[in-house]
Amino acid sequence: MARIKYYYDTETCKYERIKVRTQDVIWNVLGLASLILVSSVGIVFLFFSYFESPKEVRLTNEVEEMQHYYENLDKEVTQLHEVLAALERRDDNLYRVVLGSEPIDPSVRNAGIGGTDRYTELRNKDLDNKDIIVELKEDVDKLRRKMYIQSKSYDEIADLAESKEKLFAAIPAIQPVSNEELIRLASGFGYRTHPIYKVRKMHPGIDFSAPPGTPIYATADGTVVKAQVRFSGYGKLIEIDHGFGYKTRYAHMQEFEVKSGQTVKRGQVIGYVGSTGLSTAPHLHYEVLKNDKQINPVHYFFNDLNPDEYEKIIELASIENQSLGM
Which keywords annotate this record (predicted)? Predict the structure, then answer.
């Protein structure tokens, strides 16, 4: 039951009952409701200004986690770029220099993907951080392309190395007979007195004096292209094609250990010293040819000689004397 309110009327000196109009009640209710509404809005505003909702907290955590992953990925990509740059420097300045190949042009290494914008679809997506995503994607694609170029470079280097290995094996780099004390070189390359005609003639090889039956070694890897017997000139002769323009000849032999068409390795015994053909004493006449031109074999004795021994054998080969055969 609502309480009845009174007020004191000074004119009548009596307490009069307060009469409340319906209109006043309505306005009072509306005013109170407005005050409550404004207060509630203010409280809600203040609350959300200083406190995050559960959804906002979850989204904030997701953003922070994504930022963390992005920073880690970006750091890893940067580290991969640094590692790849080191590999590229080693490739250009070491491997290719050693193998005699030109470095890869920087414009090739740093060339773009080309074509239309590969990231149009990604740019058109309704994403808040799409620029960051596109930038990272571009960086990864650039890294992927540079790694592809580097892998192809290593394939090329492997081919070059294999080719160089074959080239080194094809160079006549040892003496054809055992000559540890350097006493068997009897006559060098150049003009020498012919043992039969007693006139100065071009001697196109080197003569090694040795007892009959002394082993003769292939001076490089190759294929025997000649194993022929003559009663004059070179006598029993073996010729080996080593590839890359190199050939060697071994003349005045006593007998063969190989036959035509056979492949041989450096250091393999191919026959024995004799005195067949136009020869005045047991010896090996040895020639080196480069692109079918006879060259001084002494310049190729570097695998089994130290610098002092090499200088000594150069000196011995330069002495003009009489050759032991043609």
Answer: Coiled coil, Membrane, Transmembrane, Transmembrane helix
- Residue of 251, 271, 260 lying closest to 224 (CA atoms): 260
Across the chain, which distance is largest between two alpha carbons, in Å? 175
DSSP class of residue 108?
H
Fold exhibited by the domain 185-317: Glucose Permease (Domain IIA) (2.70.70)
pLDDT values of the chain reduced to their tens digit, one per residue, 326 residues: 556 676 676 777 776 676 667 777 788 778 888 888 888 887 777 766 666 667 766 777 777 777 777 778 788 888 888 888 888 887 877 677 666 677 888 777 776 655 446 666 656 666 666 677 777 777 888 888 888 888 888 888 887 777 888 888 898 989 999 887 667 777 778 776 666 656 667 788 898 989 999 999 999 999 999 999 998 889 999 999 999 899 999 999 999 999 999 999 999 999 999 999 888 889 999 999 999 999 988 888 877 777 777 777 777 776 765 555 55
Report the C-alpha gap between 293 and 194 in whole angstroms.
21
Amino acid residing at 19 = K
**What is the number of H-type helices and E-type strands within the chain?**
7, 15
CB count within 10 Å of CB 7 equals 8
CA gap 43, 162 in Å, rounded: 81
Coil, helix or strand at residue 13: coil
- Report the relative pairing of strands 215-217 and 253-256 from DSSP bridges: unpaired
Q: What are phi and psi of 59, to 5 degrees?
A: -65, -40
Domain boundaries of the chain, sorted by first residue: 6-50, 61-170, 185-317
- Reading the block at residue 318, the tokens are 């330069």
CA dist., res. 99 & res. 313, Å (int): 30
Cβ neighbour number for residue 241 with a 10 Å cutoff: 16
* E strand spans, 136-221: 185-187, 190-193, 200-203, 206-209, 215-217
pTM of the model: 0.55
